[in-house]
Amino acid sequence: MKFSTSAIDTIIPTCIIGPLKLLYDNNPEQVSVPMATFETPLWHSTKRGALVSQKTSGIRVAPLDDAMTRSVILEANDLDGAVSGTNWIKSHQQQISDVVSSSSRFAKLNAIHVEIIGRMIYLRLSLTTGNASGHNMVTKAADFAINYIIFHCSRLKYVSISGNICTDKKVSSINGILGRGKRVSAEIFVPRDVCVSVLKTTPEQIMELNVKKNLVGSILSGGVRSANAHYANVVLAIYLATGQDSANIVEASQGVTFAEVDADETLYFSVNLPNIIVGTVGSGKKLDFARKNLELLGCFPDDPFSSQRLATLVAAAVLCSELSLMASLTNCGELVRVHEKLERNS
Description:
Blueprint: E1 2-3, E2 14-24, E3 27-36, H1 40-54, E4 59-75, H2 79-91, H3 93-103, E5 108-117, E6 120-128, H4 135-152, E7 157-160, H5 173-178, E8 181-190, H6 192-199, H7 203-221, E9 226-227, H8 231-241, H9 249-252, E10 255-261, E11 267-276, H10 288-296, H11 306-329, H12 334-345
Parallel strand pairs: 2-4, 9-10
Antiparallel strand pairs: 1-2, 2-3, 4-6, 4-7, 4-8, 5-6, 8-11, 10-11
């Protein structure tokens, strides 16, 4: 573990953690991850998870979906007008898709999700946006789509370019279900001896705690499609280090941690994040510290899949820290002792 010398250090302490052992199509790769945070124990927790990855076959990561969203509101005179307007939109989806593509060479329409409330129509446009996180791109694309629709379908009129079912920087069920940004899962198989020697616990204890804390506890709290210990901590640290829009940790805090003990007493552990919003081009990414850290991660702007790679690395780092924290919580008093020791000495 070493500290970086980037300019962001003058504002937020940044540490390079790893390497993490990752599996891409069964090919192992060693990657170190920059994390900017004031919470010193986060580095050490992620580092311990990275050590676990080195003592196993590695962390397998899988990008499952890629779709940035913007919702808009249109309105008709009455419910009949809203229904017929919606039918018109559905029958002209290819034309709307062409209009969206004309707004940017990277914008591609995936789907249109429709909700009718009385005479109002809420459209949730889902787009791929290349290596950009896509906030501005999807807004511009939505503006093009709105103008096309209201010009050709006179029964509808404009209400808002933002309809709140995107959902941008707010926790929502729709994001957890349909996703916003990159949906990524990561998994690891941890043998019993590694659990005992590195994590100081057993596979059974981690599995049981995941049920009682992450699953039951999240139900009791009213969590929205979330059952995890602390995804937001790690996501924010990498977002800050790589020039991302840090407010998107609101969406990225959603996700489900799953743990199970296999027949050979190996711990199966996975994290599943439906809303990782990252880019390798665009606002903030040209700053020296961000560019340097993206290059460290192997996320180069001329690689058409670099933003997907960045999302998988976020998920892998989340897995490392989530696993380490859950192990700590199985031991009474360990979390307090570690925080007092590390934060007083930081």
